[in-house]
């Protein structure tokens, strides 16, 4: 039996764990695209915090794209894993070639999602980093490492569902890790949702547009009710 109706339902359930953040001015919520954004939207709506997207692109080793030798992310973030590069003898030209390809895709997604808005400032703030679920957690690790280069005060990672070992590993990398459901045998994230249809670019853009219009102006008192979500 699925635990969540859809990503928005998962976000509302996850938001119950963030009541202590309601009305705090130094909190920013970031969703990992695409599926993490509907979850993050519900958390941002509940606590009255601004919402943004953190787009992360892994820079994979030539011939082994699943193995990361670096990452780039929204806001000009660049992380390089010199250990992997040196161990595998990846040349500077090879790295730069793959990085340029990933930068082009990151720029395309920025244009698609942001409607011309710049990334939100996260320095010296508590950042809530949200996805719709994790298996190995590799994407979240890349996001956390990239985010640290922007010097947030605290990083709180949050997901509706993930294996206990993944949650435990991420607790070592964050100030707080919130996992609602931690099945010993995950199999697939989508099995925990009744509706796990792919989140579209349009849905991400509409949620971010709605948040940009409404969330920053909300007061703590009106936080749970002020936003009419896009349909």
Description:
- This protein is an alpha/beta fold.
- Helix content is 36%, strand content 20%.
- The protein has seven helices and eight strands.
- It has a five-stranded parallel beta sheet, with helices on both faces. A three-stranded antiparallel beta sheet has the order 3-4-5.
- The chain is globular, with a radius of gyration of 17 Å.
Structural class: alpha/beta
Q: Order of SSEs, N→C? A: HEHEEEEHHEHEHEH
User: What is the total tally of β strands?
Assistant: 8
> How many individual domains?
2
Number of continuous helical runs: 7
Short overview:
By secondary structure, the chain is of the alpha/beta class. Helices cover 36% and strands 20% of the residues.
List keywords for this structure.
231 residues; alpha/beta; Rossmann fold; Ybab, Chain: A; 3-stranded antiparallel β-sheet; 8 strands
Walk me through the topology.
Elements: H1 7-15, E1 27-31, H2 36-47, E2 51-53, E3 56-61, E4 64-73, E5 77-80, H3 82-88, H4 92-114, E6 126-130, H5 138-148, E7 154-161, H6 164-171, E8 176-181, H7 201-214
């Amino acid at each position: 039996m699925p635990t969540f109706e859809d990503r928005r339902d998962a976000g509302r359930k996850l938001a119950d764990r963030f009541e202590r953040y309601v009305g705090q001015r130094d909190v920013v919520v970031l969703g990992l695209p695409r599926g993490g954004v509907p979850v993050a939207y519900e958390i941002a709506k509940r606590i009255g915090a601004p919402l943004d997207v953190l787009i992360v692109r892994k820079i994979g080793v030539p011939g082994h794209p699943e193995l990361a030798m670096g990452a780039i992310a929204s806001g000009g973030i660049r992380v390089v894993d010199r250990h992997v590069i040196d161990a595998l003898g990846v040349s500077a030209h090879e790295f730069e070639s793959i990085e340029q390809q990933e930068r082009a895709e990151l720029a395309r997604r920025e244009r698609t999602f942001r409607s011309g808005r710049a990334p939100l400032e996260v320095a010296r703030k508590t950042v809530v980093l949200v996805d719709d679920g994790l298996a190995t957690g590799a994407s979240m690790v890349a996001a956390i490492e990239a985010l640290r280069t922007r010097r947030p005060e605290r990083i709180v990672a949050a997901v509706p569902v993930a294996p206990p070992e993944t949650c435990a590993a991420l607790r070592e990398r964050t100030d707080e890790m919130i996992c609602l459901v931690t099945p010993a045998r995950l199999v697939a994230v989508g099995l925990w949702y009744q509706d796990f249809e792919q989140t579209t670019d349009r849905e991400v853009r509409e949620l971010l547009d709605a948040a940009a219009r409404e969330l920053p102006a909300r007061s703590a008192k009106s936080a749970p009710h002020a936003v009419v979500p896009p349909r």
